[in-house]
Each structure stands twice: as structure tokens, then as C-alpha cells.
Amino acid sequence: MASLKIGNETEDMFYENLSLGLGKVLNNIPRITNVTLEKRLPCEKAQVTAWESRHNVYLPDDMKRFYLSTDGFNFYWSYQYSPNDIRRVGHIHFPHLIQITLVRDNIDTILTVSPNTTLTVPPIIRQSNYIDLSSGCLDHLNLNSRSKIFELSTIANLAKVCLVYETPESSSPKIFLLETNSLRWQFLAESFTEYLRMSIAHLGLPYWELCFSSCGLPAWTEQLFLLLAPHLLEKNDSRRLKNIVCINENPPYNVLDPAVFRTKLRCSRQTQKIRLNN
């Protein structure tokens, strides 16, 4: 990632460059409205140093420069389903630095050790194979008692986007998707920069990360993809899995009540005659 510090460029130009011009792209798509990007103050160097000292890790260089330029990122937009029905749909969010914390509930489960010092969880939770995009070779994620896992975002109750340090000394942590039900790991990005660009490329469409999960996209989200960016559903990425899952969440549009299709009960001819005589 190129340096994100604001020099002679205006603040607006900085955010336009950071978002790769996504706002202009969305404003040219029919029915998309209320495109908003919140401007935030940068973190102080002391804040970044304090975070690193607290967690005993170093932020990767691109992520550090990001937070020294803006303390998080919040970009969202709405979709007009009808003249009087406008709902927020798209969202790209990176938390404030202080909000990036260890995934304590899951790491305790992942690394639970029984009295005989053997891990009590399935091996797939501790180790996951993935393709290293820089080399094109098969690699794998190995977790141990020294690993550090930080939560960047939560996707409903289905998954967490995590920044994973296999060891605290690692200078290049990777971005993984942790499926909360199965505790399976799915590889997302080699770096923070790549994950940010993936978020922008997917227009901030809801749950886009689930394209790379074993559970897949909710059906209503896939409809939005087909409507606004069907090319994103093409299987041109070895990491992408295409399944559809139903989740217990109200989609951002009106749900049709099946009761409207119920017809009146038919009456027998004899009943009709009695009604006419009365």
C-alpha cells in the first residue's frame, strides 16, 4: 500500500484515493443513493505503539500506515427498492484501532489443552490448507499456544474476519475467515491492503466474505449480487466457494406475506341456496 499520509492533497482526494473512487462508481449505478464516507482523524504514533505493546505484536507496515492516516474506515450506501422504500445495504467498515481485540472466546476453544497435553479439538481447526497467492504454492495455517488472532469484523452469527499471527514475531499476518459454527478457517487475503481492496471490489455488498466460506451467501444477498454486480459471482478465484445458505435474519427489503394468496373457501351449492333464500 502506498503511503496514506495526507500531504499536499486535499482531504477529499485522500479518501477518494483510499476508496479507489468507489463513491463515483456507486453514484453512477441506478437506484443506489446516500453514498457516505465518514472522515476520521488519524491515530497518533503513541496510540499505535501502545496497541502493539499491549498485544506484543507489530502491526504490518501497510496496516500501520493506514491507521496513522485514518482511525478506521466507515463507508456505506443505500438502495432504493421503491420510491418510498430506501434501505441501507452496502457497508465497508474497519474498526477504530482500539476496537481491534483478541478473539478470546474462540482462541480458548481452539487451543484448549486436556490433562494429557493433547488438543481436544479437530485438527482442521488448528491447521488449514490454502493457496499462497504470491507463490502459487499450497500453504497451511498452523496455530499454537503463541498464536494471536484479532477480530476485524463479525458477519451475522456465521463468521469472523480475523487478522492471524501464527507467531507474535510474524511481520506478515494474513486475513482469514473463521466460521463460528464449525471453527473452520477459510483464507481471505495475504495482507490488510488486499483485504481492503477486496472489500472495495465487492462494493461493500452485505456478507461478501461468505463467497469464500463453506456455507456461502444468503439467498437474498446473492440476489443483490446478481442485480448489481453479477460478475462477482463468477468462479475465477480458487478460494471462492459457491453455496447458498438461509440465515435467520430479515433481508433489507419487504417480505411478502403468503397469506395474500389465500382464496375464499368454496361453498357447496346447497349452502349457496340457503344463503340466497335467507
Structure keywords:
278 residues; alpha+beta; SMI1/KNR4-like; 4-stranded antiparallel beta sheet; 9 helices; 26% helix; disordered N terminus; Knr4/Smi1-like domain-containing protein; Knr4/Smi1-like_dom
What level of helicity do the residues show? 25-40%
Percent in strands: 15-25%
- What composes the largest sheet? 4 strands, antiparallel
What is the chain-wise order of helices and strands? Answer: HHEHHEEHHEEEEEEHEHEH
Round the Cα radius of gyration to an integer and report it.
Answer: 24 Å
Question: Ends: how far apart?
Answer: 84 Å
Care to count the β-strands? 11
Low-confidence stretches: 1-8, 112-127, 131-138, 242-248, 253-265
Instruction: Kindly report the average pLDDT value.
Output: 78
How is the largest sheet built, in terms of strand order? Answer: 6-7-8-9
Structural class per helix/strand content? Answer: alpha+beta
The global form is globular
For CATH, the homologous superfamily is named as SMI1/KNR4-like
Give the CATH class.
Answer: Alpha Beta
What is the third-level CATH name, the topology? SMI1/KNR4-like
CATH architecture: 3-Layer(aba) Sandwich
Number of domains: 1
Counting DSSP H or I runs of 4 or more residues, the number of helices is 9
Organism: Anopheles epiroticus
Protein name: Knr4/Smi1-like domain-containing protein
Domain Knr4/Smi1-like: 42-198
